[in-house]
Amino acid sequence: MKFWFGITLWKRILGMLVLGVVFGVLAGESATSVGWIGDMFIRLIRMIVVPLVFVTLVTGVIAMGDPKRLGSLGAKTLGLYMATTAVAITIGLTMAAIIEPGVGIDLAGVVPNEEVGQSSSTLEDRLLAIIPMNPIAALANANMLAIIFFALMLGAGILLTGDKAKSLAGVFEAGSEVMLKITHLVMEVAPFGVFSLISGVVGTGGIEQLFTVLPLATAFLAACLLHVAITHGFIMKFVLKLPVLRFFQGIRGAQLVAFSTSTSSGTLPVTIAAAEDNLGVKTPVAASVLPLGSTINMDGSGIYVGILAVFSAQIFGIPLGLTEYLLIAFAATLVSIGTAAVPSASLFLLAAVLGVLDIDAAQTAIIVGFVFPFDRPLDMIRTVVNVTGDLSVSTAVAKWENEFDEEVFRAPPAE
């Protein structure tokens, strides 16, 4: 036990991830027999997400000391999230145009996925849904945007009340500390959960399936690597004047968990811990920027949907000019914001992007039917991109808002 806990957490996670791949290859579909361990880990993560986000976000607002700071923080956060998403989609479209993943692909025999379709909710409905009619119901249903809105309002209300609300503020501050301790306890299960989840993916053919669409996978992987290295590397080195390597060292644990779980919201407790413990992002920013990012910042999904749109156009012989690329970029940006932070969600919003190219529902169903069998490995990668973007933006906002401890950032990672 002493030997096990003497190894830093990210190394334990990485080691079990490698062992999971080996076990999945050797055991094949029998690897699913240990799937209950991964299910247990996911349930533990989901158990703490809502209370963690709620109490830490309220505490974060209280820690600001001035409700007016919410406007400044919110503007910088949303602006940077939108900017990085736009850059991500541009890189994705560029790689798709260069590699041309749809050229020469034969879709004969592909079974259409009839579940795909545009969401029935309008933009107005989505905006109204941010304001919960029943905050308790929002908490029970894990409606993250509604939870964020109510937590911000509650925190601002406590601030405006002043001394009379000090006792309530103390309750939330204590609750935040308790939830962070629980998060660290849950993370001790992460290596075993990662082993189970990865072995199941590999054992059921997830890795091999990538080779059936190598050009598409190549375009996507290249775009993801370029975005992470160039965009976030640029932000660290030239905008924030911080060491790039140190940033990536500090977030590797969160990236590994994101890779294995394929859910940004499920990784959120680990992301918050990495931001505070390894990057020096203080609670007011970590507790507000990261929950919002896990909901609206989907750079990986934007890259993926944009590339799939070009892929589809190439398959169906639709010529793409500057206007079409701009339409794809705009639609992909909006879709990435509305993508649920759960596995494979972006596939089922693909129709909204392909619609700008006049690709009908039947053709969209064929594309999804072709992509869906190997989507999980790619989904794991795009979740890593999403979480990396969340941590990059939170670091930038923290430094701009003077809620940043550079000594913590430059010190060796805590885990």
Account of the 3D structure:
The protein is mostly helical and 415 residues long. The protein has 20 helices and no strands. The protein starts with a helix and ends in a 5-residue tail after the last helix.
Which characteristics define this entry?
415 residues; 20 helices; Proton glutamate symport protein; globular; mainly alpha
Topology of this protein?
Layout: H1 2-6, H2 9-27, H3 35-64, H4 69-99, H5 123-129, H6 135-140, H7 144-161, H8 166-187, H9 190-203, H10 206-209, H11 214-239, H12 244-261, H13 264-278, H14 283-296, H15 299-315, H16 322-338, H17 350-354, H18 361-371, H19 375-400, H20 406-410
Helix pairs in contact: 2-9, 2-12, 3-7, 3-8, 3-9, 3-13, 3-14, 4-11, 4-14, 4-15, 4-16, 4-19, 7-14, 9-12, 11-15, 11-19, 12-13, 12-19, 13-14, 13-19, 14-19, 15-16, 15-19
Shape: globular
> How much of the sequence is in beta strands?
under 5%
Tell me the CATH architecture. Answer: Orthogonal Bundle
The total domain count is 1
Summarize the structure.
The protein is mainly alpha-helical and 415 residues long.
